[in-house]
User: Which sequence fits this backbone?
């Protein structure tokens, strides 16, 4: 588990700020072609791992970041001021969806000097929302930009990977691969190994075998 | 200066708020857990205004605050009227000439190091608690959180109420102290005003001149415009 000295040992006071790094990939084929935007809740610009985090990015809120001992599929969000036109520009005019978002927490000493940092979240922007809060009764009109991000694990869970069991998919990587050429002839077949292929495993032996497997599985789960 | 400065000049109540952004929790065994976000920690003033302004005398002020609305900052000071000379008055013992020669050597976090100090006895107080200090022309005052004496070194370190929020370099800048300091503020709630019966005056021929008194919808809440610090 990550050890964060700034909060270890029952510290009476923790002075901390959030640092957000948003990496927008402009070209799928060129991972080096990126634009990086930073935001923070600190009182001044700070440099963490060579990256300067400006405090003028208009960070309004950082959503909850779920902390688990094992890797889980947690989401979070960040809310930016829409009064700063640059933030609406980032949402509308750049390839924001799919961007990498990293959240770091910085810890300060009692003299307000950044003394330690801890990485909190890495994920991918899945959606954004530009909201207008118009209250004519109060003569106020405010815009906010909310960026939602999923952790890498959630992204991987939703990813469709591997190959389908048909010749077209099989020959993407090797056009001479004939492994699946006869797959259509056994499509929708149940196999009773040792016997001729049938449309359905309807023999007594197969039925008994299926029943036994089901019974064993039930006992296993009941016993566990 | 006008508008917000006029509000300060005629105020009859001032509430000062420069609390920090904190999180406080109490555990089930009643141990407090405290966190703090190191923000720019702006000054916030809540100013009560009297309701005895005559309409005909306050029209310039009404136009000024309507023009400022809730968005425009202005520089204000508490040294504009002699009646306020006691407020934020400098409590140290440096002469004005000595103050003018002091320079900032560095300002990192909340540690302000000053140099070019006057040759005075080491026990003399340069800054008392709550003394205002302004760096150069940056109208974002800090306060000294401790009493700072001259000492014998070439420099002194002042622990300020908030960290250095000034974006540019302050090295070798001069300082301003006490109520000569200035605040850059706007009024995000800019109160509206109501005209009510009163304020009539007699003319020289004895006839009554119609008028009204001004009542404000709420107190003025000034907020330091730290985005340009």
Assistant:
């Amino acid at each position: 588990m990550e050890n964060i000295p700034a909060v270890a040992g029952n510290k009476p006071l923790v002075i901390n700020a959030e640092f957000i790094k948003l990496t927008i990939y402009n070209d799928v084929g060129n991972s080096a072609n990126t634009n990086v935007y930073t935001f923070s809740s600190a009182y001044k610009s700070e440099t963490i791992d060579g990256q300067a985090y400006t405090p003028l990015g208009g960070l309004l809120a950082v959503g909850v970041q779920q902390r688990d001992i094992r890797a889980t599929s947690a989401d979070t969000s960040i809310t930016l001021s829409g009064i700063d036109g640059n933030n609406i520009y980032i949402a509308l005019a750049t390839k924001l969806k799919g961007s990498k978002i990293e959240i770091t927490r910085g810890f300060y000493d009692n003299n307000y000097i950044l003394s330690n940092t801890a990485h909190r979240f890495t994920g991918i922007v899945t959606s954004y929302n530009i909201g207008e809060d118009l209250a004519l009764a109060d003569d106020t009109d405010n815009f906010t930009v909310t960026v939602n991000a999923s952790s890498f694990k959630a992204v991987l869970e939703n990813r469709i990977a591997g190959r389908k069991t048909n010749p077209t998919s099989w020959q993407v990587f090797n056009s001479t691969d004939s492994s699946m050429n006869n797959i259509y002839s056994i499509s929708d077949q149940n196999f009773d190994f040792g016997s001729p292929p049938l449309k359905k495993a309807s023999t007594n032996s197969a039925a008994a075998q299926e029943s036994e497997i089901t019974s064993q599985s039930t006992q296993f789960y009941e016993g566990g | 200066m006008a508008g917000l400065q006029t509000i300060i000049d005629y105020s009859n109540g001032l509430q000062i708020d420069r609390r920090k952004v904190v999180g406080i929790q109490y555990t089930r065994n009643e141990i407090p857990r405290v966190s703090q976000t190191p923000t720019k920690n702006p000054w916030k003033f809540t100013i009560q205004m009297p309701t005895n302004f005559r309409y005909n005398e306050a029209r310039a002020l009404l136009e000024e605050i309507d023009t400022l609305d809730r968005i425009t900052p202005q520089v204000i000071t508490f040294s504009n009227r002699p009646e306020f000379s006691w407020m934020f008055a400098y409590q140290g013992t440096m002469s004005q000439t000595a103050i003018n020669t002091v320079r900032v050597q560095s300002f990192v976090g909340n540690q302000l190091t000053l140099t070019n100090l006057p040759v005075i006895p080491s026990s003399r107080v340069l800054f008392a608690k709550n003394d205002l200090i302004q760096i150069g022309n940056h109208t974002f005052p800090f306060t000294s959180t401790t009493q700072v004496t001259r000492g014998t070194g070439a420099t002194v370190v002042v622990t300020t109420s908030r960290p250095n929020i000034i974006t540019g370099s302050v090295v070798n800048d001069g300082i301003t102290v006490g109520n000569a300091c200035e605040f850059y503020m706007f009024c995000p709630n800019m109160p509206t005003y109501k005209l009510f019966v009163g304020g009539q005056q007699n003319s020289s021929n004895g006839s009554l001149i119609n008028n009204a008194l001004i009542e404000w919808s709420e107190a003025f809440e000034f907020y330091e415009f730290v985005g340009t610090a």
Summary: DSSP finds four helices and nine strands in chain A. Confidence is low (pLDDT under 50) at residues 217-224 of chain A.
